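Below is a filled-in request sheet from our internal design queue. Each sheet records the structural input a requester submitted and the sequence that came back. We keep these sheets so that new team members can see what a complete request looks like end to end.

REQUESTER: design group, bay 2
PRIORITY: normal
MODE: inverse folding
CHAIN LENGTH: 625
BACKBONE (tokenized):
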């Protein structure tokens, strides 16, 4: 197979992307938890509201059910506010492809950096000279500028999927963390100094402190520590929390996951993340069984704040307090006041529900065990939207960023930021509380997946699939392909499992339309071209992968029994290397393990006769998809 042929196949696969969970044993692509028999129709009862927005406390515009894929609206990610040393506020506005600079004294917009549609400006860093640098996730770039003269902004190419950025004061360089595990080091003028593979994927926040580099991973919520030469030292994660299960009286562990944002405060790191139940004891026929049944009144996912102390002697991290914020659905951001006496977390909800919460840490000791959220109080918010980012000003005033209409709320005062509306009903439904403290994005953060393998009574372990990358062409949905349409899927998941109200067809269409336009992960870079070619020949030839993984999405949308305890739909393989572990039960922690006898066999392709070199080539090719 020629290299040009391989490139054409990759291009065809990227035309409509869906993330994968590896091999022919998973599902078609879109679901939050587990396969169940057809559910009986449930009477919504006298409390049912036909207006969906009111039922869910969402923005009233949601009932218009409008969507516009041309807007390229990215998912909510947090971390889009930064207060500079000169007391200017830098605001990333991913929906309008711009970065704003606001004077915190006059509270006026001082300047704007306009960017191409889909640029997705996100995390922000400041260097020693006051220069500001913003990651452009949609372009694979960093934009740099003097906040006093943003019109002079310059863009610099970095890795294909950058996420976090931090200024390393000791080395006077910028560190950019990337989804594929690479760390780009840039001089403050934007010159690429080096690119190093850190040996761990899914990088999120990059936090240089005192000669050490602390890097978080998104889905696993781990913090990895590296020395000044970028050599690994250690890793740590938030604690697992045991809770009681109402349904059977047993103890259920809540495992750390999805580190939305981690910030530095003094000698501490403060992370806002999620924890997910290791199993669900309720029978799948129980209505709303994703959203209740645990001791703190939480559902299968809870919002948590965890602190880590940096030991001044050796730079090692020591886990500190951890406490739940049950009121907060989808905790995308966190801020700590300059004096450290208040912590504030944002929850990406829309409409009339509170979307920012704060607490005095002195009160937390009373509630640390059990770690429920009695100490948290709501922060004033804009009445027509949810907060998507939080920060504190130099005088301790709270700062909330509102998505649409674009505005800041500083100390309770609303400051409009201007710009056209970017409201989208599908976007709102995906991020909003379905009614029991869960959002679609709780298990599918940023349209992807939480990396979890769930256990439900009567079913084998099942791994959360991703949504983004172009799901419309992969129907029928669900692991077993038993959901013929988005309507059937929403009836089962959003309404029955998550406890949401009945959705009208226009709401289902709006949600499906927004999700379907989310781009997938980019192919990995820097791979051995010869190994890619050899692997491609195996994939499309004697390994027989393409007998099921074919077409533009690398799936034939059918279901097969490939010797893994059931019949499962063929998933897309586009982006498979970013979705570890793979297989429907997560048995493969690496792509190589997918070809072990215990995690597949010759009923799933034909690979048992391949030697280690050939398997390595096949894995290399899979990394390009």
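RETURNED SEQUENCE:
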């Amino acid at each position: 197979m020629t290299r040009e042929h391989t490139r054409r196949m990759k291009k065809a696969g990227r035309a409509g992307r869906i993330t994968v969970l590896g091999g022919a044993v998973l599902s078609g692509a879109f679901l939050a938890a587990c396969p169940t028999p057809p559910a009986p129709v449930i009477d919504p009862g006298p409390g049912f509201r036909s207006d969906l927005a009111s039922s869910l406390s969402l923005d009233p515009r949601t009932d218009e059910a409008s969507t516009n894929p041309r807007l390229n609206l990215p998912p909510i990610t947090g971390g889009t506010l930064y207060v500079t040393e000169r007391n200017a506020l830098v605001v990333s506005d991913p929906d309008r492809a711009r970065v704003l600079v606001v004077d915190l004294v006059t509270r006026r917009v001082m300047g704007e950096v306009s960017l191409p549609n889909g640029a997705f400006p996100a995390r922000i860093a400041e260097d020693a000279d006051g220069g500001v640098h913003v990651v452009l996730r949609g372009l694979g770039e960093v934009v740099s500028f003097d906040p006093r003269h943003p019109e002079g902004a310059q863009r610099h190419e970095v890795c294909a999927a950058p996420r976090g950025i931090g200024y390393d004061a000791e080395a006077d360089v910028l560190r950019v963390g990337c989804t594929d595990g690479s760390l780009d080091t840039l001089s403050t003028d934007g010159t690429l100094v080096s690119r190093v593979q850190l040996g761990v994927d899914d990088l999120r926040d990059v936090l240089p402190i005192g000669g050490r580099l602390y890097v978080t991973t998104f889905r696993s919520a781990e913090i990895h520590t590296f020395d000044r030469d970028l050599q690994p030292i250690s890793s740590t994660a938030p604690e697992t929390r045991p809770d009681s299960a109402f349904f059977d009286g047993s103890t259920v562990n809540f495992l750390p996951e999805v580190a939305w944002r981690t910030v530095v405060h003094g000698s501490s790191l403060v992370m806002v993340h999620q924890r997910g139940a290791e199993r669900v004891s309720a029978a799948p026929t129980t209505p709303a069984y994703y959203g209740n049944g645990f001791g703190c009144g939480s559902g299968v996912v809870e919002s948590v704040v965890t602190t880590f102390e940096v030991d001044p002697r050796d730079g090692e991290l020591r886990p500190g307090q951890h406490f739940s914020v049950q009121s907060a659905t989808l905790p995308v951001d966190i801020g700590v006041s300059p004096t450290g006496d208040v912590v504030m977390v944002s929850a990406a909800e829309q409409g009339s529900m509170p979307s920012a919460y704060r607490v005095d840490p002195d009160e937390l000791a009373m509630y640390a065990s059990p770690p429920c959220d009695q100490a948290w109080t709501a922060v004033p918010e804009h009445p027509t939207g949810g907060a998507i980012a939080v920060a504190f000003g130099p005088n301790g005033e709270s700062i909330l960023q509102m998505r649409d209409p674009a505005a800041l709320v500083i100390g309770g005062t609303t400051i409009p930021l201007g710009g056209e509306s970017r409201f989208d009903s599908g976007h709102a439904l995906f991020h909003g509380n379905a009614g029991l403290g869960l959002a679609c994005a709780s298990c599918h953060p940023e349209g992807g997946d939480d990396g979890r393998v769930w256990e439900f009574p009567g079913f084998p372990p099942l791994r959360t699939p991703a949504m983004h990358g172009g799901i419309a062409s992969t129907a029928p949905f669900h692991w077993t392909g038993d959901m013929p349409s988005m309507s059937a899927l929403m009836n089962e998941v959003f309404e029955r499992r998550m406890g949401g109200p009945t959705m009208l067809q226009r709401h289902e269409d709006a949600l499906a339309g927004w999700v379907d336009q989310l781009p997938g992960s980019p192919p990995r870079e820097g791979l051995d071209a010869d190994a890619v070619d050899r692997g491609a020949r195996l994939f499309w030839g004697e390994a027989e992968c393409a007998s099921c993984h074919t077409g533009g999405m690398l799936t034939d949308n059918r279901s097969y029994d490939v010797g893994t305890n059931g019949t499962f739909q063929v998933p897309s393989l586009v982006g498979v290397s970013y979705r570890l572990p793979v297989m429907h039960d997560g048995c493969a922690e690496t792509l190589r393990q997918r070809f072990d006898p215990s995690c597949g066999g010759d009923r799933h392709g034909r690979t048992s006769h391949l030697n280690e070199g050939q398997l390595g080539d096949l894995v290399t090719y899979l990394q390009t998809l």
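SHEET NOTES:
- Residues 3-14 form the longest helix (12 residues).
- Confidence is low (pLDDT under 50) at residues 1-50, 365-371.
FILED BY: M.R.
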